[in-house]
Amino acid sequence: MHIIENGNVAAALGVKLCHANVIAAYPITPQTPLTEKLSEYVEAGEMKAEYIPVESEHSALAVCIAASSAGARSFTATSANGLLYMHEQVQWAAGARLPLVMCVVNRAVGAPWNVWNDQQDSISQRDTGWIQMYCSDHQQIIDSVIKAYWLAEKVSIPIMVCYDGYILSHTYMPFDVPDQEKVDKFLPPFRPDYALSPETPANLNTVTLPDVRIDVKGELAHGYMEIRYLLHEEMRTSLAVAAEGEKRFADIFGRGGDPYLEPYLCDDAQYVAVGLGSITYQLRVAVDTLRKEGIKVGVMGVRFYRPFPDEAIASALKGKKGVIVYEKALSYGYEGALASDLKSALYEYLAGTGKLPVVQNFVAGIGGRDIKTDDLIQTLRAATKGRVSIQPVWIGLKL
Amino acid sequence: MGTRNYRRKTSHSEHGPGDGGRTGSWRVERPVLNKSLCIPCKRNTEACFICWLFCPDVVISRTIPPEIDLEYCKGCGICAEECPTKAITMVDEAKFSEDDKDKE
Amino acid sequence: MNKEFIEIRWHGRGGQGAITAAKIVAAAAFVSGYSGVVMAPSFGTERRGAPVMTSLKLSRHKIYDLSPIETPDIVVVLDHLLLAEADVTSGLKQGGIIVLNTPKAFESYKFKGYKLATADITAISVEAGLPHGMVNTGIIGSLEKATKLLGMDILIKGIEEEFQTRRPEKNSLAAKIAFEKTVAGG
Fold first, then answer.
1. Which chain B residues are within 8 Å of C51, Cβ to Cβ?
2. Cα(A56)–Cα(A84) distance, rounded to whole angstroms?
3. A249 and A147 in contact (C-beta within 8 Å)?
4. Following CA atoms A212, A213, A218, A219 in sequence, which dihedral angle do they give, to the nearest 10 degrees?
5. Could you tell me the pTM of the whole model?
6. What's the CA angle centered on C134, arms A172 and C168, to 5 degrees?
7. Does pLDDT of B1 surpass 60?
8. What is the pLDDT at residue A199?
9. CA torsion, points B39, B45, B51, B55, in degrees to nearest 10?
10. Is the pLDDT reported for residue B103 higher than 50?
11. How close does chain A come to C39, measured CA to CA in Å?
12. Cα separation of A188 and A95, whole Å?
C-alpha cells in the first residue's frame, strides 16, 4: 500500500512491522518525530512494546542492551551528538554481539552546534563493529529496517540504518508499506541462543582475560582476543548472509537487487561517482546531464558501508578511468573515510593489473550546506577531465 | 594569533540586536502597557521593572515608562504574565493597523 | 508551465499549515498520475509566526533530486504580509504564477512578468465557518483556480480526508469558495 509520508514515519512503520518489543530512545533533532511516532503506536495499542523514556542517549542504548540480552527485540534511534553520547554503549553492543537495530538520522556533530544534515555522526562510528546500511529514499528506509532485524538476528551483530536528516527524515515522498503478513513471513520471532533469565543466570561480558582460560565446567573459554576476532570474522561473512537476505526479501516482497551496491548507468561508464545515501540519487541528475554531453559517467550508491563490500566494489570499478567519491564527512587530518576505504579495496584487488582507476574525493554538504545539483554537475565534469587534486576538495566553501 | 584569527576558526557570537532578523514580524500578539497601572510610571521612581528583568529578548527598557522595542519583540507574553499589577496585556496583532507594517 | 515537472514554493508562517496544504496537493497529484512527488519543509529550528517555506515538486517520474527549488513555476503566499519579509518571487520563472492570500484588490499589485491570483482567504475561511487564520485549505482552491492543474474534485476529496476529524466540510467549503472568488490574470 503506497502512502506519502516522511522518512521518519517510514522508519517507524518499519519498526512497527517488525514487532519490536522494547523501544528506548531520547529525542534529538532530526530523529524526534521517529520516536514520537513509535510512542504513538505504543500508546494506541498498535504496537505491543515497552516504550521506555530515558534521560539520555547513553541510557537509551544501555536499556536496549539489557533488553536484548534478556531476549527482547529492541530498537533505538538517534543523531549526531546523541550518537556520540552513546558511543561507549555502541562499542559495548557490538562486543556483546547483540542484534540491535538503531536508526541514525544523519546530522552534523558539534562544535559548533548544528542541526542539519551531514554524515559525520555515523561515519565516526565506522570502526565500532556495527554493521552500517545507508538509505537513499524512503522505500529503502522502511525495507532496510526490516532487512536489518533479519540480518542482525541471523549473525548477532548490531546494525545502524542510516538516512539523511531533514533531506530524508522530514521530506515527504511516496513509498510502499509492506504487508504485515509478508513481513511476518520474512522475519521470524527473535530466538536468541541465550537470553538472561532467573532460571539460567549468567554473567555477560564481565572481565575477560587476555588469554584463554578453563571455565567452571572445565571447558576452554575464549579470551578477549578470540571474542573480538569472531566479531570481525562474522562481520565479514555477514556480507554473504546479507546477500541471502536480499534474495529472500526479493522473493517475498518483489523488490530488491544488488545487496551491496546501487549502480546507475555504470556498465559502460568510464567514470563512476560513488557516495552514501541521498546524494547518490541527486548525482543521477548530474549523470543524466553529462551523458547528454557525451561523457560516459555513472553513479553507484554504496548500501553497506560496514562490513565494507571490498570485492564487489573493486569488481564494479575495475577498469574504470576514474572514480569520484562524494562524501558528507571525512577523517580530519586525512581524507574522506569512504574514499580511503575504497582506494584500499581498489589497491588490494587491482594494483598491478593495469585496471586501477584514479580516485578523486569531494567533500560536500558539511553542516547542511545546500548541495546544488549544478555544483555536482560542474565537479563531476571537471573530474572526468583529470583528477582535480590528491587532497579532498570541498565543494561550496565560502572562505 | 590575534583575536581576529581565533574568531575565524571558531563559532563565536556576541550579543546585539538583529542577529535573528526582524523577529518582531513573528508576533501574533503584541504587549500593550497601561501606564496607569505601571508602578514606575505611577510613582515616577525606578522601581519594579519586573518586565525588563523577565523579558528573554531584552526588548523592554529599564526606563520610565518601560519602552518595548517592537522591532524585536516576539510576543511571548512573559512580561504580561509576570507584571505584578497586570499593567501589560497581550493584544491580537491583527488589531493593529496593517499600514504600520505593510511595505509593499 | 511544463506539466511534466512542476515546482511549487509555499511561503507561510510557522503554525499556519503550509505543510498540510502542500501534502494535500501532493497526495492529489500522486493519484492523478504524478508518480514522483516530493514535499520538503524548510529545515531547521521552528517557531510559530516565523516565515517558513515548503517546497513541492511534482513529476511524472520518480524524483531523485531532493535539493531546494531554485526556479519555481508557482509560488503560494499564505499571508500577504510576508511580501515585506521574504523575497517570494526569488527565482520564479518568467510567466510564473503567484497565488496570494490578501485582503487587497487584485489591481493593487504590480508583479511584472508574472501571473497573479488573489483572494481574501482569511475572510473566506471565516465565511466557510473556520476559525480566524486557518487559511491552508482555502488557499488550495486559489491554487487550482490559478493553475487548473488537478481538478477540484480530487482536491476536495483530499482535503476532507486530511481533515476527517477536524471540520472536513468547512475546510473543503473554504477551498470551494476560494476557487470561485479567486481573481486570476496577468
1. 25
2. 11
3. yes
4. -20
5. 0.93
6. 75
7. no
8. 95
9. 170
10. no
11. 5
12. 24
